[in-house]
Design a protein that fits this description.
This protein is an all-alpha fold and about 500 residues long. The chain contains 32 helices and no strands. The chain is elongated.
Length: about 500
C-alpha cells in the first residue's frame, strides 16, 4: 500500500513538471493570446497615427527645407537622406545640388545618386561636367560612375532601340575627357582609361602616347591593353620598339611581345629570340610561342628547355600543342620528351606525336605503351590503336589478353572479333575465369551475343554458378534458348513454383 502511494505521488510530481516546463512554441502561443488585446486597444486609442506614406512626404519636405535654409552640415545630411527616396521632388533636389557652390554638397549629391539603381538621364550631363571639378574627391567619384552614366535605363533603352545602348559621349565632351587624361590624380586618369571603349573616338592619341612616358606602370599597362585600337597597333608598336630596350616592367614587355606576335607575324623571329632567355617565364613563353607561330625551326631547343625547366605546367602543355605547327621538325624533340616523368606532359606529347606521324606509323610505340603503369597513357594508346591499320591482331590480342591490367584485357575482348572463330572461343573461355568482374562479365556477354560454340552450356553454368554477377549477365539471354531448356532453368531458379 505504501509503495502504491509513493508511485501516485511521483506521477503527480511529473505532471506538475510538465505544466511548468512547457515547450517554447506553446509558451509563445500563450503570450500572443494574452498580449494581443493590449495591442489592439493601443491601436484603437490612436486612430490618427500617420501612415508610412505621410511620414515619407513629411521627411522629404523637411529635408528639402533643410537643404535650402540649414547650415552646411544640415544640408549635407538632408541630401544624403533624400538619396534614400525615389520621390521626384527628392531626386530633383539632389540633381540641383550637383551645381551647388559647396564642394561638400556636390560630393554628397554624387554619393546619393550612386546609390540609386538607375541614375536619372537629366543628371548625367551634370555628372560629366564634374569630371573636371575643382575638388579632387568629386573628380574621383564622378569618373567612377562612367559605367553607370553610359548605361541607359531599361525604359529608355526600349524606346531608343538596340542601336543606341549607351549615353552618347560627343564632341562637347572631348575637352573634358582629354583634360582628365592629364589630370594630376592617378585615380581619375585610371577611371578614364578603364572605360575608354565608351568614348574611344574622343580621346587624343598623342595624349595617350605621352601618358606612356609619364605615368605609372599599372596605368601604362592599361593604356596598352585598353587603348591599342584608339592609338593604332602600328603606332603603338613603333613607340614600344623605340623604348623596349630600356623597359624594366615585365608586364609591359609581355604586352609588347603579344602585340608583336599578333600583328607583324613571320618577320620578327630575331626579335623574339632576344627574349627567349628572359628571367620572367611568361615573357619567355610568349617569345617562344611567337617563334613557333612564325614557323621557324629555331624554336625547337627553346621549347625543349622550357618544358624540362621549372615553369608553369599549363604553359608547357600549350607549347607542346603549338609544336604541331612545326610539323615533322618537332618529331625528334617530342620523342625525347616522351621520356618525361610528368604524366600530363607525357600524355600530351604522345597525342602530338601520333597526330604528326599518323597512328599507323606509331603502332609499335603504341603497342609498347599498353604495358605502361600509367592508366591514362594506356587509355591514350588504346584510343589510337583502334584506328591503326596493318596491325597483326592475331599476334597482339593473345598477348594483351594476358596483361596484368584489367583495362588492357577488356580492350582485347573489344577487338577479339578480328581473330578467327576458333581462336576467339579459346581466349573468351580463358577470360571467363578472370579475377576482374568487368572483364569476365564482358567475356560472357560476348560469348552469348555472338552465340559462340557451346554458348547454351556456358549460359546454364553461369546461371547455376554461385557468382551473382555472372548470373545477372546471363539472365537476359535465357529467352534465346529452346523452350524445354528455358523451363529447366526456371525450375532450377524457382523450384516451388509449378505453373511454368
Amino acid at each position: 500500500m505504501r509503495i502504491h502511494e509513493q508511485h501516485h505521488q511521483r506521477t503527480k510530481n511529473l505532471e506538475l513538471i510538465d505544466l511548468i516546463f512547457i515547450d517554447k512554441s506553446t509558451l509563445l502561443f500563450y503570450l500572443i493570446v494574452f498580449f494581443c488585446p493590449f495591442f489592439i486597444c493601443a491601436q484603437s486609442e490612436n486612430p490618427n497615427a500617420p501612415t508610412p506614406k505621410e511620414t515619407e512626404i513629411k521627411t522629404i519636405s523637411k529635408c528639402i527645407n533643410d537643404y535650402h535654409t540649414g547650415n552646411e552640415k544640415q544640408r549635407k545630411r538632408a541630401i544624403l537622406v533624400l538619396g534614400k527616396y525615389n520621390n521626384s521632388s527628392a531626386v530633383q533636389t539632389i540633381i540641383n545640388a550637383l551645381d551647388d557652390h559647396s564642394a561638400l554638397i556636390r560630393q554628397s549629391a554624387l554619393v546619393s545618386l550612386s546609390e540609386k539603381p538607375n541614375i536619372p538621364e537629366r543628371a548625367k550631363e551634370k555628372i560629366v561636367s564634374l569630371f573636371i571639378d575643382t575638388d579632387i574627391h568629386i573628380q574621383r567619384i564622378s569618373t567612377s560612375l562612367i559605367t553607370r552614366i553610359a548605361r541607359m535605363s531599361r525604359i529608355k533603352l526600349m524606346r531608343a532601340g538596340s542601336k543606341n545602348r549607351f549615353f552618347h559621349f560627343d564632341q562637347k565632351h572631348r575637352d573634358i575627357l582629354n583634360k582628365c587624361l592629364v589630370s594630376g590624380d592617378y585615380t581619375v586618369r585610371k577611371n578614364i582609361i578603364l572605360h575608354a571603349h565608351y568614348f574611344y573616338k574622343l580621346l587624343d592619341k598623342n595624349i595617350l602616347i605621352d601618358c606612356l612616358d609619364t605615368t605609372e606602370d599599372e596605368l601604362r599597362l592599361l593604356i596598352i591593353q585598353k587603348c591599342k585600337y584608339i592609338i593604332g597597333k602600328q603606332k603603338l608598336l613603333d613607340y614600344l620598339e623605340k623604348n623596349i630596350s630600356s623597359e624594366k616592367s615585365s608586364a609591359i614587355l609581355l604586352e609588347y611581345i603579344k602585340l608583336l606576335s599578333s600583328y607583324k607575324g613571320k618577320n620578327n623571329t630575331e626579335v623574339f629570340l632576344k627574349w627567349c632567355n628572359y628571367p620572367d617565364s611568361k615573357v619567355r613563353y610568349e617569345a617562344i610561342k611567337g617563334i613557333i607561330l612564325s614557323g621557324s625551326q629555331k624554336a625547337i631547343p627553346f621549347i625543349e628547355k622550357y618544358v624540362l625547366g621549372n615553369n608553369p605546367l599549363q604553359e608547357k602543355l600549350n607549347l607542346i600543342r603549338y609544336s604541331a605547327y612545326l610539323h615533322s621538325v618537332a618529331i625528334k624533340m617530342l620523342e625525347r620528351l616522351l621520356e618525361n616523368d610528368n604524366l600530363a606532359i607525357k600524355n600530351e606529347v604522345l597525342q602530338k606525336l601520333v597526330q604528326l606521324k599518323g597512328p599507323s606509323n606509331c603502332k609499335d610505340m603504341l603497342i609498347e605503351l599498353l604495358k605502361s603503369e600509367i592508366s591514362k597513357i594506356r587509355k591514350t594508346a588504346m584510343r589510337y590503336l583502334r584506328n591503326c591499320r596493318n596491325i597483326d591482331w592475331e599476334k597482339i590480342i593473345p598477348e594483351i589478353s594476358q596483361s596484368q591490367y584489367p583495362d588492357i584485357r577488356y580492350f582485347s575482348i573489344e577487338n577479339i572479333h578480328k581473330l578467327h572463330k576458333g581462336r576467339q572461343t579459346e581466349l573468351l573461355l580463358n577470360l571467363l575465369i578472370d579475377d576482374n568482374v568487368d572483364v569476365k562479365t564482358y567475356a560472357l556477354r560476348t560469348i552469348l551475343s555472338k552465340k559462340i560454340d557451346n554458348w547454351q552450356q556456358i549460359l546454364k553454368q553461369s546461371i547455376m554458378s554461385a557468382d551473382i554477377d555472372m548470373q545477372k549477365t546471363a539472365m537476359p539471354y535465357i529467352r534465346y534458348m529452346p523452350k524445354n531448356e528455358q523451363l529447366e532453368i526456371y525450375r532450377y531458379l524457382d523450384p516451388v513454383r509449378k505453373d511454368f
